[in-house]
User: What shape does this take?
Amino acid sequence: MSVVVRLKLVFIAILVALTVVWLLSIPMEALTSGFWRLRNSLIYYSGILAIGCLSVAVILAARPVQVEGLLGGLDKFYRLHKWLGIAGALLSVFHWLCENAPRWAVQQGWLAPRPRLPVGAVADVPVGFDPFRDWRGIAGDLGEWGFYLLLVLMTLALWKKFPYRFFLPAHRLLSAVYLVLVFHSIILMDRSYWAQPAGPLLILLMMAGSVAAIISLLRRIGTARKAVGVIETLRFHEDNAVLDVGIRLTTAWPGHQAGQFAFVDFGGGEGAHPFTMTSAWQRDGRLAFSIKGLGDYTRGLPHQLFAGQSVVVEGPYGRFDFGGVRRRQIWIGGGMGISPFIAGLQAMGQRHIEGKVDLIYTTRAPAAAFIDAIRNLAEKAGVRFHLMIEQQDGRLDINRLEQMVPDWAEAGIWFAGPPAFGNALRSAMEARGFPPSQFHQELFDLR
Assistant: This one.
């Protein structure tokens, strides 16, 4: 089973679990006793789904490394975080519509008003002391404004052109919005739900989500995994606009596996960006990163960074570690997807790791010095190196792969590069019977 399929199953499982506990928490007649009672049940159902999805999304945003193994690494479960955030926002829209659309329909004469209770009848609501009665008005108002702000911030988060330096504080504000929605949920949830299966699950999710949200607001995410260092070396490859940055750490670092990444903060108010480490860990306190100039921030780094500059590194993260059951492997790096494989070559050369490996590097911007360095590492590691310059060799597809590596179907495939490129290769391989579990793809898109 591929990691993406596993993530989809986890996503579906979360929705199913929330649905099941809701069904177990309501009397069956609530779904068959007319429109208005059904509408009331759907308000609570959509609210439970929305706050449940948002809770798990906020928990994942706090980077709990304990679930990396289960979900395939931080780069993978950030995709689940994104799906849950979108689902939470859409379910919030449904929740809002369940509350307001019937009222509009009544005002327009399209729907009969809710029947009034006969004189002397008792309303179908729980009796007893309600400690939150005086808070319901403010909880409703805050929930509505929190809903509007949620939609705005989610739209900005999904808008790729929204500058990263503004994205981080805007995304952090979502934690505050989440806490408002937790307050809204606790105050307005029908008290009967708290004594039913939905209650304990929601309490657990909202408690964990609230802790994660507070950690985010206090800017404490990843604090225990941060190290301080200084820039030791800089080398800019003009041909492909890649900046090699060597960092010497001055505080403790737990070590890392080849293929992992870290969040690096060079200062200047931009915040930390994720970059794959291109150096194997040698216990000497040194890390290396190769940074491609793709946006305004990364294009400006060659002119802003200098030797001796202080940096903060948080990590390591990721499970793109060249493990698996197949010793025979093919590594495919598209563009700056070559970064984890550079570290992999270093690790193989230093530790004399056994195993037959072919490395295929495809690029549109060849840089002689950069390529020579990779070729030398491959030679020392005993790895067969294949270079494809797209302008003259075309793009790698399954037929070209078979020509270069005839026994490709017997290998574990490790791919890092443009998602569409990797998806096309994976689909072509699976069409020939290649097992999805043997195609390992880095999903390095954290927005």
